[in-house]
Amino acid sequence: MKDFRLYAITGENFHPDRELLEVMEEAIHGGADIIQLRDKTSGREELLRKARALRDLTRRYGVTFIVNDHVDVAMEVDADGIHLGQGDLSLLEARRIVGDKIIGISTHALEEALLAEEQGADYIGVGPVYRTATKADVVDPVGVSYVREVAQHIKIPFVAIGGIKLSNVDEVIEAGATRICAVSEIVGSSDVKGTCEAFLSKLDKQG
Ligand SMILES: Cc1ncc(COP(=O)(O)OP(=O)(O)O)c(N)n1
Ligand SMILES: Cc1nc(C(=O)O)sc1CCOP(=O)(O)O
Ligand SMILES: [Mg+2]
């Protein structure tokens, strides 16, 4: 897959007065180079509408587009890939459906990371590093120690996620993360572009 550094996930409840596309385009202008549609409430038609719109947007900018959970939606809009958690469709089943599209897998412990790598994941999510209110059913925070462990043992790309803010990202980078993912800190910001630029500048400094 094309490498990436700043992974922005949609979270429409964090910007009730702004349109999805406007916010995600601003994130792209700030340097987000991979966008994920994560929507836990819309029905299929609404999800497809958003996915098509984000596919058009990301294609215009040459940015990677991932759909969370819904393999069928990812296939229908020709997304670049799919993100799956430990309780979603298995990686091996998903691979049969998506072929060589990107598959990202959430991991919360080294055994999960090693298994995902062995089974052919293209990247893994590593978290939640800190407590987050964005995902209700998430496991307890794994801390930067898990980031450090993954940096030492895993060869495929990994992205740190979960409660990551401009105020705490330095220690995540110090632990070995070279790719950062955020929902609320990016899309809930009054300056989405500036927040993305600030994340990237911190990654640059320690890279
Ligand atoms: C990049 C990235 N990492 C982790 C997740 C979480 O996926 P999952 O565990 O399936 O939880 P939901 O997002 O589906 O609630 C993610 N979406 N993206
Ligand atoms: C969607 C998601 N997955 C996580 C995981 O650890 O797998 S943490 C998370 C929520 C991230 O949102 P925020 O940046 O607002 O904390
Ligand atoms: Mg999921």
TrEMBL record:
Binds 1 Mg(2+) ion per subunit. It comes from the Bacteria. It holds the Pfam family TMP-TENI. CDD domains: TMP_TenI (cd00564). The keyword Secreted does not apply. 2-[(2R,5Z)-2-carboxy-4-methylthiazol-5(2H)-ylidene]ethyl phosphate binds at residues 132-134, 163, 183-184. GO terms for molecular function: magnesium ion binding; thiamine-phosphate diphosphorylase activity. GO terms for cellular component: cytoplasm. It catalyses: 2-[(2R,5Z)-2-carboxy-4-methylthiazol-5(2H)-ylidene]ethyl phosphate + 4-amino-2-methyl-5-(diphosphooxymethyl)pyrimidine + 2 H(+) = thiamine phosphate + CO2 + diphosphate; 4-methyl-5-(2-phosphooxyethyl)-thiazole + 4-amino-2-methyl-5-(diphosphooxymethyl)pyrimidine + H(+) = thiamine phosphate + diphosphate; 2-(2-carboxy-4-methylthiazol-5-yl)ethyl phosphate + 4-amino-2-methyl-5-(diphosphooxymethyl)pyrimidine + 2 H(+) = thiamine phosphate + CO2 + diphosphate. Pathway: Cofactor biosynthesis; thiamine diphosphate biosynthesis; thiamine phosphate from 4-amino-2-methyl-5-diphosphomethylpyrimidine and 4-methyl-5-(2-phosphoethyl)-thiazole: step 1/1. Mg(2+) binds at residues 69, 88. 4-amino-2-methyl-5-(diphosphooxymethyl)pyrimidine binds at residues 36-40, 68, 106, 135. Residues 6-186 form the Thiamine phosphate synthase/TenI domain. The keyword Metal-binding applies. Its EC number is 2.5.1.3. Its cofactor is Mg(2+). GO terms for biological process: thiamine biosynthetic process; thiamine diphosphate biosynthetic process. Coiled coil: none annotated. Keywords: Magnesium, Metal-binding, Thiamine biosynthesis, Transferase. NCBIfam families: thiE. Condenses 4-methyl-5-(beta-hydroxyethyl)thiazole monophosphate (THZ-P) and 2-methyl-4-amino-5-hydroxymethyl pyrimidine pyrophosphate (HMP-PP) to form thiamine monophosphate (TMP). PANTHER family: THIAMINE-PHOSPHATE PYROPHOSPHORYLASE (PTHR20857), THIAMINE-PHOSPHATE SYNTHASE (PTHR20857:SF15). Belongs to the thiamine-phosphate synthase family. This is Thiamine-phosphate synthase.
